[in-house]
Amino acid sequence: MCVPAHDERDFEFAKKFNLPIVQVILPEGEEEKELTEAYTGDGVIINSGDWNGMKAFEAKEKVPHIMEEKGLGKKTVNYKLRDWVFSRQRYWGEPIPIVHCEHCGAVAVPEDQLPVLLPQVESYKPTDTGESPLAHIDEWVNTTCPKCGGPAKRETNTMPQWAGSSWYFLRYVDNHNDKELASQEMLKKWAPVDLYVGGIEHAVLHLLYARFYTKFLYDIGAVPFEEPFQRLFNQGMITKNGSKMSKSLGNVVSPDDLVQNYGCDSLRMYELFVGPPEMDCDWDDSGIDGVFRFLNRVWKLVYNNKDLNVTASKDMEYLRNKLVYDITNRLEALTMNTVVSGFMEYTNKIIDLGKKKAA
Ligand SMILES: [Zn+2]
């Protein structure tokens, strides 16, 4: 960022390479003194000519516009990843492909020996010492150093769940490929992902990590695009009596009971019908009755008219085309509840048409 006085990483970089650290923001009411760490708070502008004395937050707004006017640059937003602890003390996780050698230190496992696979174990429970369960499997831990050939030990921490969730979708497009992550051809054909549906809780961690991985893979030429997901949809949460469903609160609705009583088609359709997908909504046990009745109505209608063509009359053909048109638009907009209601209206109208004909 080129602001060593006001960014932790720039500060460390400048210290290491003996670069000048010019402070340009001073905490209000304080005197300028040598910085021992980056100052990232607000304050007043100093050491900046005409800008001196201006509040930092005002300058942040004005500077980009002046830069743009003078053709010196343009405003942009840079994201900064939080430091990411990348080791876990548990069995389930990708082994970190590093061995520790007394002579050579930490050595990366050579590419032709990848992937490092988890050993088969009797028990993968945590150890009493807080170490990874892998630490106790001597025949797996003890290995040879790829560099000097001497005795060495495998890293026994494993990767966090984010490690795999940051790139699995890239592998899906070419999952039998044993030469590379995925071929450029298949990546171009199927990726990037058109639509990502997920909870808002993933917005700052998982999604940033996935973008970070993708940008890195793009830089080394492994994938042909910089962004992994083209469209993001955050769905709402289904609550019960206003609270998040949880075992400890005892307010979990069991799908098994509903499937038993109504069948899984009714349950699935009710989940789609329960409300706009981006909104939180409260689960109402009796709501599924309406969907159950609707499906029964459809079943009867079809069963009683097995030989009838859906375009048997102009009226029916019109209704069907209107249904296709409406549903297509609603699917594109992801308003699944209105897709279901569209089918409900259509079914009612078809039934009415039949009644009119009979009369
Ligand atoms: Zn070694």
Summarize the structure.
The protein is built from twelve helices and eleven strands.
Notes on the protein architecture:
With 359 residues, the chain is of the alpha+beta class. It has 12 helices and 11 strands. It has helices at residues 8-16, 56-69, 138-141, 161-165, 168-172, 184-190, 206-219, 255-262, 264-273, 287-304, 314-332, 336-358; strands at 25-26, 44-45, 98-101, 105-108, 142-144, 151-154, 196-198, 232-234, 238-240, 243-244, 281-282. Strands 4-3-6-5 form a 4-stranded antiparallel β-sheet. Strands 10-9-11 form a 3-stranded mixed β-sheet, with no helix packed on it. Strands 1-2 form a two-stranded antiparallel ribbon. Helix 7 (206-219) links the parallel strand 7 and strand 8 (232-234). Helix 9 packs across helix 10. The chain is extended and about 95 Å long. The N and C termini lie far apart (78 Å). The site of zinc ion has 8 residues, from loops.
